[in-house]
Amino acid sequence: MGNWPLSVQPSCPDDVLENCKFGSKFDRAINYEDGSPLARPGYFKLGLAAGFEVEVTTTQHAALWNFHFDSNGSDRANATLSPLFLLDLTDLSDSRQNASISVDPATARIKANGTFLPSFGVGSYQSYVCVDLKGAAIRDTGVWVNDRAGREPKRLFVDRGYSLYYIQAGGFVRFDEPPSGSIQARVGVSFVSTERACANAESEIDDWDFSRIVTHAETLWRAKLSPISVVAGGASEALQRTFFSAVYRTMLSPQNYTGENPLWRSSRPYFDSFYCIWDSFRTDFPYLTILDPNALTQMVESLVDTYTNLGWMPDCRMQLCKGYSQGGSNADVVLADAYVKNLTGDADRSGMNSSKIDWKVAYEAVKKDAEVEPFDWGVNGRGGLQSWKSVGYIPVDDFDYLGFGPPFHSISRSLEYAYDDFCVATIAKGLGYDDDYTKYITRSGNWRNLFKADQESHWQNGTDTGFVGFFQPRYSNRTWRYQDPMECSPLDEFCSYSSNPKETFESAIWCYQFYVPHEESTNIELLGGPERFVERLDYLHTSGLLDIGNEPSELNCFQYHYAGRPGRSSYRLRTYLPGVFNATPSGLPGNDDSGASGSFIAFAMTGLFPIAGQNVYLIVPPYFQEVRYRSPTTNRTATIRNVNFDASGDMIYIQKATLNGQTYTKSWIGHEFFLEGQTLELTLGLEESAWGTRGEDLPPSLERIDDSGYKQTYGSEYGWG
Question: Residue 336: pLDDT above 70?
Fold first, then answer.
């Protein structure tokens, strides 16, 4: 987004307004002073080379800025301090289609609205802003277009421009030298109206008290983060900063826009910036289930309410618009994860009434994803459902005349559709829809139809990797097409929507070969058994084929658990964290993807990894001596404690474990650990042990009985009986 940038120039050359920089926002850019950035929840400060300092704090719908000017700034040796504030009618991507602005010469209030395009989706949205400035006498006001400004006009309307030329435009206020050396800016925003934007600012920041707003923001953040505490046990400050920064980022998106949705009226919460669920379903939503179950419940309500009003749940949504789907209908996974972890409000299942999710309507939503193809399946639902139901995969040559979307990614879509169907089956089973359960649990095995048992993988020089059996694209007549299993890896070209699209999205077949979260035991058999599976995982991690900064790779760190090698998961994780993921400027490869990387880090350092859509957390040693989570639902505190903890990171293998003082041999645990406030104690050593390696101790996995049914291999308490 980045709508409505506010830029400041302390003075104009020769004190002449027209000599200041208007036009391109890049021409107005100012370098910041090295070492000056200071960030903490609810507060940010930055020193700028132009000789002033900026502070900002925030409320739910507004922000308050402090601009502190140095009248003796080095770049103004002979210039008069007369700060110029420009409001720019644009956003980060210059997507503005049209906009209007007005400047009140008596009060310096600037009001604006505009039509913009979403950053990764279709349609357009309206945004509104209200800016108040105070701290000095008003000297000039007006509007500007490109590199020219005028004092007389106080209103302006612009469209996008003409041909390829984008019109730069906005409003301005110039002040006399501020007596206190500071000027404040209060900025309110809204998706409803300019009047609402002004009302938001006035109600939330009525007294312009910067310290009070900072304190209030910090209080809210402390409350949000209060369920977590750690006993560092000698772990470095850098590790602690990495952990808590990651936790903080898990709570930035999705965002609560309740009351700011102009598209439909509803008594349900409205959340936006599901950007994108393909990224965040894996770890971010599961983490919020622990840290902030009330917010997660509201997010699920919002997803279901979006289905009720628009006909589909999103796989991606931002700025009130539909975002592009990157694979399956992964809101299905979010709902299944919430369901198996008892965010139901159903006293018969959970013993508490902690949510308002209507699970019958929620099931309608996920079942529609599984059964009905939308015309625009590139932005919601699934495509190719006729083929999915008839041949059991998405053909590379799929003739799909019912709807339209990206005509590629047939492998990654098929794998995600299979797991989505598993998640639909999970909810169906819980709600007593046994026939639906049988249908969808059977369809969840469709992933096997793309496994080509004799497919080899070679390097470009012809060297054989030594591994046989990979997913491959398949035609509708059941013959095979070839995609190099290494394509789309970091050693090849990047594969996405607009860049080099292939039959896998953003990762290679080498990575997607392991994406069968519900049927890991079968996949292990297909890949040659546990020992060969471990060798293949090792090869993936050490060959350069894996992009650990991309979400499909996160699960790969922990899949050794399914082959009876939980210690290998612990070892593998520590080759990436803190070496790749850390609190340095380069310590977040790729980007955080709305908390996806942050939640991966937070879980890993906690000593757990969620299998989203299942009541399963895989266990590894935490990065601290002790980590505690207080459940906001039950107010009970769960504790994971390391015995023989070594802050240097040598003692990383679990030798034995106890749960509430009783011997515990499983390499995984369920969500009741958090709800009941259990204590998991892990005794560590220097070498891998037999802990968690027996068949009965492995994480749950489905195993095919025959072509019409499944049984659960491990963990009957998981829910299949």
Answer: yes
Q: In what order do the strands lie in the sheet with 668-669?
A: 608-610, 617-619, 668-669
What distance in Å separates the CA atoms of residue 631 and residue 587, rounded to the nearest whole number? 30
The 8-class DSSP code of residue 559 comes to: G
Residue 352 has a pLDDT of 38
The residue-averaged pLDDT of 566-575 equals 98
Query: Average pLDDT over the chain, rounded to whole?
Result: 94
pLDDT of the residue at 78: 59
Reported as a pLDDT band with limits 50, 70 and 90, residue 713 is very low
Tokens 């926002």 -> residue: 25
Dihedral sign computed on CA atoms, order 448, 450, 456, 462: negative
Residue range 44-95, pLDDT digits in tens: 999 999 999 999 999 999 999 999 998 765 455 557 899 999 999 999 999 9
The token pair at 162 is 């003409």
Q: What gap in Å lies between CA 678 and CA 287, rounded to an integer?
A: 17
User: pLDDT at position 77, please?
Assistant: 54
695 CB neighbour count, 10 Å cutoff: 9
> Do the Cβ atoms of 609 and 620 come closer than 8 Å?
yes
Is 638:629 a contact under the CB 8 Å cutoff? yes
Q: Where is 305: in which H helix or E strand?
A: helix 293-310
Q: Distance between CA atoms of 48 and 70, rounded to whole angstroms?
A: 11
* β-pair partners for 166: 161
pLDDT tens digits, residue range 384-430?
Answer: 999 999 999 999 999 998 999 999 999 999 999 999 999 999 999 99
| Cα–Cα nearest to 557, from 540, 544, 545, 543 | 540
Longest dimension (CA), the chain: 86
Q: Please, what is the end-to-end C-alpha distance for the chain in angstroms?
A: 48
Question: CA-based angle 669:719:445, to the nearest 5?
Answer: 100
**If pLDDT is split at 50, 70 and 90, which confidence band does 536 have?**
very high
What DSSP state is assigned to residue 31?
P
- What residues have CB less than 8 Å from 226, skipping those under 6 apart? 630
Provide the token pair at 216.
């209030």
**Helix, strand or coil for residue 87?**
strand
Tokens 């932005």 — which residue? 379
The answer to whether 387 and 394 are in contact (CB under 8 A) is yes
Question: For the chain, how big is the Rg over CA atoms in Å?
Answer: 28
639 burial via Cβ count (<10 Å: 0-12, 13-18, 19+): middle
pLDDT tens, 29-39? 999 999 999 99
Q: Cα(346)–Cα(372) distance, rounded to whole angstroms?
A: 28
Q: Which residues of 122-156 are buried (b: 16+ CB within 10 A; e: fewer)?
A: eebbbbbbbbbbebbebebbbbbbeeebeeeebeb
Question: Which spans in 456-586 are helix H?
Answer: 509-512, 520-526, 530-542, 566-573
Q: For strand 148-150 and strand 138-145, is the pairing parallel, antiparallel, or unpaired?
A: antiparallel
Structure tokens at 486: 């290494």
Going edge to edge, which strands form the sheet with 228-231?
228-231, 626-630, 637-643, 679-685, 653-659, 662-663
Residue 159 is inside which H or E element, if any?
Answer: strand 155-159
Per DSSP, the three-state class of 216 is helix
Q: How many residues does the chain have?
A: 721
Tokens at residue 8, please? 């400041």
pTM of the predicted model over 0.90: yes
Quote the CA–CA distance of 136 and 178 in Å, as a whole number.
4
Residues in a beta bridge with 271:
256
